[in-house]
Design goal:
Layout (H helix, E strand, L loop, with lengths): L5 E13 L5 E4 L9 H16 L3 E6 L8 H9 L5 H18 L6 E10 L2 E9 L1 E7 L5 E7 L6 E6 H5 L6 E4 L3 H10 L2 E2 L4 H18 L4 H21 L5 H8 L4 H8 L18 H4 E5 L4 E5 L1 H5 L2 E4 L4 E4 L4 H9 L1
Antiparallel strand pairs: 1-2, 1-4, 3-9, 3-10, 4-5, 5-8, 6-7, 8-9, 11-12, 13-14
């Protein structure tokens, strides 16, 4: 039997009642739900869909807890001042206010769960709508059958309680999706998602390195990946164009762009979308840089392919060729 992806610790479902351009109201459940096998499958499916979706935003709690009260709600819950049901009901009242402020927001069932997700203690919130499907009865009649629309998860967020308590820089994630929906849900989560282009570009370069290592790419393939990625990112940074992840993965790894996209969308990397690449962070894609106790060295990756720098694996040594005359004279005179 496959282990659950997000083991349920607490779960409750409420309902947000809202038509576009209309006021919002809520229908609250008055008891937690028992984590049944069906509930576990639902949470696993939502967690998987959330993890697979690209275009997520990341951030931290806003400091103004009067206007952005989510951190106060969660802190009171973790301190034992209210139970999980009371936490979820407080969250719903805040969601009602935020949804009312957004004309195009629509309602649905709101699942609020505390889960153990890949070793992290997380608060998962998802708004799920219904669609009308069909079913066949015991008498072989075809009837309408309302069901949850799990293929169209548009509104969901995840608060990593472990990371928050550990003082991490960012610990909230949410689906960006449609701008209007993402904005009101971000406000509901009390999330400040200020994006720092330099840090995001550094994380992107780190993600490309991790992908190359996990795929065990040979040097030539690794260099081609980095060179193509550098070309797109350098061009975008020069023109002030925001990162388009789907364009990057197609250009950098045309052999299997969906594999690279999945790697860069991992929650562990927490890579935001829509930032303008900072060209200062792109050097590792083109150049090697290292230092020992008595030396420093930096060279282009292309130097390895051209034979100007040779790595001797057996001796653990670098051999430099085509040394400039001024360096040769300096070495002879040293």
């Amino acid at each position: 039997m496959t282990a659950p992806q997000a083991l349920i610790r607490h779960l409750v479902v409420h309902k947000l009642l809202k038509e576009p351009h209309g006021p919002a109201s809520i229908a609250l459940r008055h008891a937690e739900m028992t984590p049944t096998a069906a509930a576990q499958r639902l949470i696993d499916h939502i967690a998987q869909r959330y993890a697979e979706r690209r275009g997520k935003g990341y951030g931290r709690f806003e400091e103004d807890e009067d206007n952005y009260p989510m951190p106060r709600f969660v802190r009171q819950y973790l301190a034992g001042e209210q139970d999980f049901l009371a936490l979820s009901q407080a969250m719903m009242r805040h969601l009602e206010a935020r949804a009312t402020e957004e004309p195009l927001a629509s309602g649905g069932y709101v699942l609020i769960a505390r889960v153990d997700d890949a070793g992290a203690d997380c608060l998962l919130v998802a708004l799920v709508t219904e669609v009308v499907g069909m079913a066949i009865t015991g008498d072989f009649e075809i009837v309408d059958s309302p069901q949850l629309d799990l293929s169209n998860l548009r509104v969901a967020g995840r608060i990593d309680l472990s990371a928050w308590q550990a003082g991490a820089e960012r610990y909230i994630g949410f689906l960006k999706g449609r701008a209007d929906v993402a904005h009101y849900f971000k406000l509901f989560l009390s999330c400040n998602d200020v994006v720092l282009p330099l840090k995001e570009t550094q994380k992107l370069v780190q993600g490309l390195n991790q992908f190359a290592e996990r795929q065990q790419l040979p040097p030539a393939s690794r260099d081609a990946l980095f060179e193509r990625a550098h070309g797109y990112l350098d061009e975008a940074g020069d023109e002030g164009e925001p990162l388009a992840l789907d364009v990057l993965v197609r250009r950098a790894w045309p052999e299997a762009p969906e594999r690279l996209q999945t790697a860069l969308a991992e929650d562990e990397l927490a890579l935001s979308g829509g930032f303008v690449p900072d060209r200062r962070a792109l050097k590792p894609l083109k150049r090697f840089k290292a230092a020992g106790e008595h030396w420093k060295i930096e060279f282009d990756r292309s130097s390895l392919r051209a034979g100007q720098v040779i790595y001797d694996r057996e001796r653990g040594a670098l051999v430099l060729t085509e040394i400039p005359e001024e360096l040769r004279q300096a070495l002879l005179g040293g």
